[in-house]
Queue: 4 jobs
Job 1
Amino acid sequence: MASEKMVVVEIDNSSVILAKERTSMCGKCPANMFCTGEKQTVRLQIDKAGFDLKIGDQVLVKTPAASGIKVAVLVYTIPTIVFVMSLILCLFLFSEIVSLAISLSVVAGYYSLLRLYDKKFRKKFRPEIIQVVRETQ
């Protein structure tokens, strides 16, 4: 799990919108003086979690570790394999157009199941505020 400092920019009834400048490797790049890349701000809406927050407060946000490899396999690799395998199998039974339509339908079904899986397990991977950071003067 990683934690990051973010700034409160908006407050709703039960949630807050936090912002943070996206960090990058620009400072280490030898071409950074000539680059036209713009600064990017990451915005995140999360629950207040019982904290009394004001706009401008700095908070420490815990982000659960999610395996990038697992996400890539679920979103890209498995659907590609499913598409190719279903296309090959369908080509033995149907014409090319029908096989393509069936294969695309199978992949759409896979993504529908993946969406249900995502809704079920999404709460485990939601960022949350763990403390308000007070600046010492």
Job 2
Amino acid sequence: MGDEILKVEDVMQTSMQMVSGLATVREAVAEMKAKDVPALIIERRHEGDEYGFVSIDKIAARVIALNRSLDRTSVYEIMDKPTLTLNPRMAARYAIRLLARLGHRRALVVDEKGARGMVTLRDLVLAYSEHGDEPFHPEDGAG
């Protein structure tokens, strides 16, 4: 077991690809292809706004499967917003529990300064298994 608690910020990927919600789905797909990423973060329009999220899965289900035009559909029409966010200082074990409970595979990592990165359930589980099991405390809850 490690001496330090593994945190989301220890695992998150800091390179994020962002796009405007006004972009067309075709533009978003081109950005995903150019950057070799499966998802994009949708920029906030102002300080009081929330980030959005769009993935290849969502484009497949909400655009292509419904025979919608890639050129006439804007990202804001199909994105998830608000998107699931995690605090970078959250313990990895709680992030894993939350993502698993909600059925999510990834989350945006956000602090008081804004978006800091992305984290996937896969990366969290792999890092947690390498870090060593943290002790279970009954007051933490099991489910």
Job 3
Amino acid sequence: MKRSVMAVSALFLGASMVYAGSHGGGVTFENNIRPLMENQCFACHGEHAPLLEEYDANKEEFEALLQGPRMTSYEMVMEFVKGDDAGALMRRLDDGANTQDGAPGNMFTYLGETDEERQENLAVFKEWVGYWTLKRSHELSAEELEKFTVHK
């Protein structure tokens, strides 16, 4: 009897997780991406970092200070997913599996201290984005832009 209850409980829990994942319970910016970025990215892209317009106007100065554009909100990050700088997030975080030369993006190394941690964190980003592409904004079709599944 006890085993039956445990088996049914495990089955119910598994079904609940599948349901949640397919009905908005998946990766979100607030619950998953922002906390990950706080730990891995905000040293250079946190509240102290310049807004994108200021960064673009003084890129060399900020790069010398090891600062990138601020990426602390959903809206700011979306600029690098499917905005004017579409694909930039993916190009910089990619592990090299999607490049011709196999070279990872310049920010991949900051996703974790070990390759395993980097791959785990990359998987979270990939699940959140939904459509992992290294294309730039001008290369993306309207249909491709609709494939991004990012949730706030």
Job 4
Amino acid sequence: MAQVCELTGKRPAYGNKVSHSNIKTRTRWMPNLRKKKFEIPELKQTIAILLSSRAIRTIDKLGGITQALMHAKESALSERLLQVRNKVYKTRVKQTAAGKTGTAAAAKAAAAPHQAEAAAKPAAAASKPRKPAAARKAKAPAARKTKKA
């Protein structure tokens, strides 16, 4: 079995161990891999994936395996996870076409809430004149005073 993380593509690192007497010995540093099962609610199935501990933490941070799959680079994903990602994408497209997840405008607002806030600001606040560049710059620190003996 290949020692490769299926989500991040992390592989063994190669190099030399160098002794005190400067003897170089080739070595491999293996990634910290774990086999972990995840449930994919869109597909209603469970898959077992070989992941690095960093990838497991990333999945927890993003809120699930489907979000991690959607955020991952295609070049790093294994063939199997690419197929799963494409299936999830297709089911999401079908659900939006059926109207189950809401309108496209609601999806955009949910994806970028900061853009909705910016659009809600009055136009007068957006067209506020800027101060001149000299006024915007921070004042120079005062000259250092030296004590006279």
